[in-house]
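# step 3/5: fold
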Amino acid sequence: MHPMAIEVLREQGYSTDDLRSKGREEFAAPGAPRFDFIITVCDNAASETCPVWPGHPMTARWGIEDPAEVKGAGQREAFVRAYRQMGRRISLFLALPVDTPDRALLKAKLREIGQTSE
């Protein structure tokens, strides 16, 4: 994990001691938890096909500019901006009626959330 990401998360009161990158393989293994939703945030992967996940969870792409690509004095602000953007989108996601039988509407709402900014 990027040192600036850790710094921003710690400033927000999050424990970062056990954070680590995890590959898709870890979640595709037998006995791994099943997901209802898969949200990708990598802006660079916009043209890539999302892999098929066990259980066929609903997927959405919430592209966010990679703050690690920013060099120099603006990098910290880029990480803070990404943190705020994710926080706003997660708040909107948590307010969705995820138990609705209208999956097309839910998918559209997930896509709409991906277009929101701070």
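# step 4/5: annotate
DSSP finds four helices and two strands in the chain.
# step 5/5: archive (pending)
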